[in-house]
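Input.
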Amino acid sequence: MVSPTMGDLVGLKAFAIVILGGLGSLPGATLGGFALGFVEEFAGRYLSTEYRDAFGFLLIILVLAVKPQGLVPAKERIG
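Output.
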């Protein structure tokens, strides 16, 4: 079965990883992916599988509240 909304959650998580790591930062996106995966798996295993995605997005909200540019911000380009 194919539907138009099949990849919505995957695309949303990919966008969240980029925002979490810092826009334009490949090391930040890698670190953000590992952090999001760790938090979701930890929450799914030890807390509740029903709210696994919610804990991942809660991590994003907390990180952006503390560090709005992301975990590893991209270096500024001059000129």
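Helices lie at 8-21, 26-47, 52-66.
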